[in-house]
Design a protein that fits this description.
203 residues, alpha+beta, Pnp Oxidase, Chain A, 7-stranded antiparallel beta sheet
């Protein structure tokens, strides 16, 4: 497991690998956890959230499903905010809400696979965008070669990664992955997302 993910889980209060227990009276007095906010309580946000979403929605992007496997089985979520980051070393990044219930499971796994969706996979994306459902029900997948993370069938491309770093970015986390393996089909159009709807290239 990547050390950065372990540090994140400890800071978030999640369980990690079992370790010898120290009696409570022997522990140092814990310091209060800092309030991680991008905008202070007495500071007015510079733009309204609805306007922020409306304007940023004009930026067209691809769509991915980020998957992993922990002791409870496969997990994953639909992710629009994915990008390549570095060629040497090979790094990619994605952003995830700090309120996500899927992210702690990916962090515990320490690895993930980015499944880049094709033009006909809008329904698959919607299935992974819901919360609380069995997202893998009826979904065919195999194992990514380096990490064993779920590799969804028929995706045009995939990137198999280990967690390299995790940074705080306001109400989201910026997750950096080091690429261990990747692959792509010879043909296939990407699924695009623009102003709240799916689309595709037109020649």
């Amino acid at each position: 497991m990547a050390a950065t993910a372990v540090r994140y889980l400890r800071s978030a209060g999640a369980a990690t690998t079992a370790a010898p227990q120290t009696p409570p009276e022997a522990l140092p007095q814990a310091l209060p956890r800092p309030d991680l906010r991008a905008v202070r309580d007495d500071e007015r946000p510079p733009v309204a959230p609805a306007e922020f979403r409306r304007v940023l929605g004009h930026f067209a992007s691809g769509v991915t499903v980020v998957t992993a496997r922990d002791t409870d089985g496969p997990t994953g979520f639909a992710c629009q905010s994915f990008a390549s980051l570095s060629l040497d070393p090979p790094l990619v990044s994605f952003m995830v809400a700090r309120t996500s219930t899927t992210w702690p499971r990916i962090a515990r796994a320490g690895v993930f696979c980015v499944n880049i969706l094709g033009a006909e996979q809008g329904a698959l994306c919607r299935g992974f965008a819901v919360s609380g459902a069995d997202k893998f029900a009826g979904v065919a997948y195999g194992e990514a070669p380096a990490t064993g993370s779920p590799l969804l069938d028929s995706v045009p491309a995939w990137i198999d990664c280990r967690i390299h770093a995790v940074h705080t970015g306001g109400d989201h986390l910026i997750v950096v992955g080091r690429v261990e393996a990747l692959g792509a089909a010879e043909e296939g159009e990407p699924l695009l997302f623009h102003r709240g709807v799916f689309g595709r290239f037109s020649g």
